[in-house]
Amino acid sequence: MPINIEIKAKVRDVERIQKLTKELSGGLPGLEISQKDIFYNVASGRLKLRIQNEKQSQLVFYQRQNCSGPKRSDYQITLVSNPEEMNVILEQSLGVKGIVEKKRVLFLVGQTRVHLDDVKGLGHFVELEVVMRDDQTDKDGKNIADELMSKLQIVRSDLIDVAYIDLFLK
Fold it and tell me: Mind listing the pLDDT tens digit for each residue in 124-151?
């Protein structure tokens, strides 16, 4: 299973985080993506069907602890050519847990995907996903995330320990 080390944090100053992220990504503009994530009831982990503008849909399963700070996320992704039919099957068999809609701007900083998210009903967040190489340890990934958090001026008190769907369900 592929691995990320990731964090999610509330954004208090959208313009500042956009400026810092753009600088760290070499001045390149981020890729704007509209996403609708449909989460399903599963016994462990999280399962979502991700429907994206102008990109193929994905079925994503991941397992991650709910804790603040950099944490490991094990995940599997498969492309879905017919998301409407896939949703019907998953909804009938598992039931829908909830839906998260967001506008995302994706930047790449080294081996880290930086997401600036505007989540409908929740507000603005930043998410760091350090895409781990086979020769790296979780500690390596956490060090990369910590360093990037510092450069982006993300403070620990703004860290979120759960997924967006869980914020809706609280």
Answer: 999 999 999 999 999 999 999 999 999 9
